[in-house]
Amino acid sequence: MTYMAPKVFDRELKKGSAELLILSLLEHRPRHGYEISKLIEARSEGVLRFNVASFYPLLYRLEQRGFIEGRWVEKAGQRRRRYYRLTAQGRKMLKEQRSIWRDFVNAMNQITGAEHA
Amino acid sequence: MPDWGKGIRARLEGLKLEPTREAEIVEELSQHLNDRYEELLAGGATAEQAYRSGMEELNSGRLTAELQPLLRPAPPPIVLGQDERGNPLAGLWRDLRYGVRLLRLNPGFALVAILSLALGIGANTAIFQLLDAVRLRTLPVRDPQELANIPLVYHPNGRIGSFSSPNPQLTNALWERLRDQQQGFSSIGAWSAQKLNLSQGGEARYANALWVSGSFFATLGTQPILGRLISPADDQPGCGSSGVVISDAFWQREFGGGASVLGQKVTLEGHPFEVIGVTPASFFGVVVGRTFDVAIPICAEPSLAGKRQSALRNPQGWWLAAIGRLKPGWTVERASVQLAAISPGIFEATLPAEYDPTDRKNYLQFKLGALPAASGLSDLREEYEDPLWLLMGISGLVLLIACANLANLMVARATARQREMAVRLALGASRGRLVRQLLAEGLLLAVVGALCGAGLAQALSRLLVSFLSTQNSHLFLDLTPDWRVLAFTAGLAILTCLLFGLTPAIQAARTAPGEAMKATGRAATAGRERFAVRRGLVVSQVALSLVLLVGALLFVRTLRNLVTLDAGFQRDHILINDIDLSPLRLPVANRVAYKQELLTRTRAIPGVISAASVRVVPVSGNGWNDNINIPGTTVQRKIADFNRISPGYFRTVGTPLLAGRDFDDRDTAASPQVAIVTEKFVQKFLAGASPIGKAFGVVQQGGKPDRIYQIVGLVRDTKYSDLREEFMPIVFVAEAQNDSPDLEAQFMIRSDAPLTELIPALKRTVAEVDPAMVLNFSVFDTMIREGLLRERLMATLSGFFGFLAAILAMIGLYGVISYMVVRRRNEIGIRMALGADRSDIVGLIMREAGTLLGIGLVVGTVLALIAGTAASALLFGLRASDPWTLTLAALGLALVAAAASFLPAQRAATLDPMQALREE
Fold it and tell me: Suppose B343 and one of B86, B367, B467, B871 were both cysteines; which one would form an S-S bond, judging by CB atoms 3.0 to 4.6 Å apart?
């Protein structure tokens, strides 16, 4: 049996879930990096918080794998920002990940719920 | 707002990202941190706290480690101007495509450049093509390098006898012994060229006949395309009217190329010959520039000669030439040694019985030898090789001038493109890369120019050949371009490309990018050194075109000197009628009277002013000389030219009689032999004393006593065999006193009527006497003009090239002066504002042009004097350093140059000073 330090587990879990979070946040409209990170923080009620050094590598990884696509957008009176949107491949991935998570959460709930029940 | 970029960049440094990608990441992350910073400030944090929080965020993760696998590092930086693979030629295609685009943007420049290159390269290639055909090309036969010509290589005091072919190297007796005794050749053949009449009576129609020995075709390795060729079996003594072989061209022309030609008859000098075979189209014999119609075995010569003396049977009849194929392992030198060894025996055995002791001694010294004949023989070589090389030099100079013009244009363009070059240098292009780019543009022009030039050369070389062909001597040259011509044209293209492309390319590469970028448009183009190059080019153009103009004038004046030369006779309005009486079989005793009757009838034709019979038509190239003795003086065995004429000859050709009388009825076969001599004869042999009444003897062969002539008249000097020669002593003797008249009559007829209209009447008159006689007409003036072909060629071509050169040089001068005016606009404006009037400005510009012209003329004069020595052998009546010619050429050039620079000067003078100054 392998031992996994809680901190590492925490990071991997965060990363795995963060990818799903990012994809789902981009499902309906393109957003820039800061907006995404703020939304994750807000929607997880502060549980999930990424710092800049770990969040952007995540974004770039998703972009590199073709799930999202970044584009510089200039708006009048503002500095240009890089907006990310979901690609077709990302949309498919999101669907798959969602059902896996749903199954996983159900399974977890059943197990943990049964103990508590 | 804190600057996050530095911190972020420090963390990305190790990743070696592409610069643009790195910049994007820095921007994106900075924005994120700014947003965070502002949010914290808004939430009540101090700036210090907010900053620290941001820095913590940046430090907390493992930014570098996380990004490492994600982002591709930048490829090694591209050094502009170099290919990734380090191939020095890589990108050449790009350069060429870029060059095409630039030329299409500037079609005027491209057109001028290509046109001048095409003309220059075309002229050079055309002349080289002729040289190649005449001098360099090998005979189109099997292994031509094994062939050798076998002439007399040693005959110190000349030969005596009759010479009856263009290549009279051997007599038949010599040929037969040579054939039997030589050892160096596996096969050896003899040949001779002659014109033979195809028609039976009336006006003659000549075929180029090739007398060949039985082994001739086998020696050359020629195969027939139809029937068979002449073999040793066909060439047996006394063969009579045997079979003949015809050329492909003759077969097409006379027989329509039908296979039924074999067995058909060809009539030569009234004798029918059966066609036995046809040679391939590429075969023309061994004389380059000539071709043949019929080949006949030499054994048939006596039967064609009829009553005339047969060359074959004449021990003094020089008419054959020999060609041999070396045995394996033998060289020309070794064969020569063997021929030298057998020469004494051969000449001993063939000594003509009629020779006197002096002639015998001379004859026995002769030696045979072998000379390489891979490229055949050619009389054209002797006459045209030097002129052609000279013309190639001239057209080469024209090409140089054209290159100088192009270099000038390219330098101007390079100047205009200096900023482009500076930008490219600043972006990292290497100077070598820029040189290559400009050379690629040059190469493009050169290649297109060379292609057009090669096409032009095909037409030009054919034009030249037709220029050199005359009615009686048609040139036949194979002008299909071979590898030498192609290599020559390609070489020219590369050379010209380097010549006109390199200067501007090096200039452009020396651009200092900083200065060029900083400078304003005007200042950037005003490089002093750059302008010096352009001026240098113009000076060299002026110098070279002066050389060409001087050359052109020299040749034009040479031709003029020859055309207007006082040759001692008049050239116009004289028709020559050459009548062959051999079909009449007249006994010797009747011949003189018969010819006299023909002459009398000719004189009676309306329109004929006078007519006379003549043995040797002046400057026709024919000749007859004899040794004379003047009794009681030191004049012993001196050579004089002879001619045999009827009364009225001098009146017909317009040679004034200075003393004594013309021949007349008093001079008959029975009366004492009389002669008329020229001034030169008197000067040379009689020390200027009055010749009338004096006597001289003509040395006779075979030890007979001298034939004594009494001088009855003195005429002005006239040219004898060539217009270019000095006047020679000439003796005219009377036709009426001819004791061995032949079967040929030659009349010179002076008429006011157009000469071509006279011909039918002459034909009628002769036919009335006997229709079997064969006539051949030629116009005296035309004959003389055709004798000046070489001079006319030189005058026409050098004149054309000189004209072209002058125009090119003027374009160059005009370009440079116009450019100078533009460059000095501002200065001119200031001068005008300060009170200079228009004439001052014109003077300023003209002085500048004058300086260039002056230097060019001085350099050109020196060059012309040096180059003149090469041409001196081709000049007549003036020296290469003729001061008038030099002055005239320089004046002419100066005049055109003044006109070329006056236009821009005029433009400068009409500048509006206010506008010129405002532009600054």
Answer: B367
B821-834 tens-digit pLDDT = 877 888 888 888 88
In whole angstroms, give the CA distance from residue A11 to residue A51. 12
Return the DSSP state at B619. Answer: T
B316 within 8 A of B162, measured Cβ to Cβ? yes
Contacts of A37 in chain B (CB under 8 A): 32
How far is the C-alpha of B812 from the C-alpha of B795, rounded, in Å? 25
Statement: residue B307 has pLDDT above 80: no
Q: Is A106 domain-assigned?
A: yes
Count of C-beta atoms within a 10 Å radius of residue B169: 23
Q: Say yes or no for a CB contact (<8 Å) between B28 and A64.
A: no
In the numeric block, which tokens belong to residue B479?
């002008």
pLDDT above 70 (res A74): yes
Q: Which long-range contacts (CB under 8 A, 24 or more apart) does B72-76 make?
A: B72/B18, B73/B15, B73/B16, B73/B17, B73/B18, B74/B16, B74/B17, B74/B18, B74/B19, B74/B21, B75/B18
Q: How far apart are CA B897 and CA B852, in angstroms?
A: 10
**ipTM summary value:** 0.85
Q: Nearest by CB to B61, which of A53, A61, A79? A: A53
Residues of A in contact with B70 (CB under 8 A): 57, 60-61, 64
How many Å lie between the alpha carbon of B43 and the closest alpha carbon of chain A? 15
List of E strands, A20-96? 31-32, 68-73, 81-86
B843: Cβ contacts below 8 Å, ≥ 6 apart: none
Using one digit for the tens of pLDDT, what is the confidence trace for B542-570?
Answer: 899 899 999 999 999 999 999 888 999 99
A33/B57 touch (CB, cutoff 8 Å), yes or no: no
A61 in a domain, yes or no?
yes
CA B385 to chain centre: 8
C-alpha torsion sign, points B436, B437, B440, B442:
negative
Beta strands B574-580 and B744-751, pairing class = antiparallel
Above 50 in pLDDT, residue A6? no
Domain range for A105: 13-116
Give me the phi and psi of B223, to 5 degrees please: -110, 140
Residue among B28, B36, B60 minimizing CB distance to A56: B28
pLDDT at B130 over 50: yes
**DSSP 8-state class, residue B192:** E
How many CA atoms, within 13 angstroms, populate the side-chain half-sphere of residue B593? 6
CB contact under 8 A, B61 and A60: no
Q: Which chain B residues have a beta carbon less than 8 Å from that of A81? A: 31
Helices (H) and strands (E) in chain A, counts: 4, 3
Within 8 A by CB and 6+ apart from B313, the residues are: B172, B302
Are A51 and B67 a contacting pair at CB < 8 A?
no
Give the pairing type, strands B243-246 and B271-278.
parallel
In a domain, A26, yes or no: yes
Chain B residue closest in CA terms to A33: B32
The DSSP annotation for B503-529 comes to: HHHHHHHT--HHHHHHS-HHHHT--HH
State residue B78's pLDDT score.
52
Q: Is residue A33 in some structural domain?
A: yes
Domain with residue A83: its CATH number is 1.10.10.10
Distance from CA of A100 to the nearest CA of B (A): 26
Structural domains counted in chain A: 1
B534 in Cβ contact with B411 (< 8 Å)? yes
CA dihedral B117, B122, B123, B126 (to 10 degrees): 160
Please identify among residues 6-25 of chain A the ones whose CB lies closer than 8 Å to any CB of chain B.
none
Stated length of chain B? 920
8 A C-beta contact, residue B342 and residue B350: no
CA B724/CA B346 separation, integer angstroms: 38
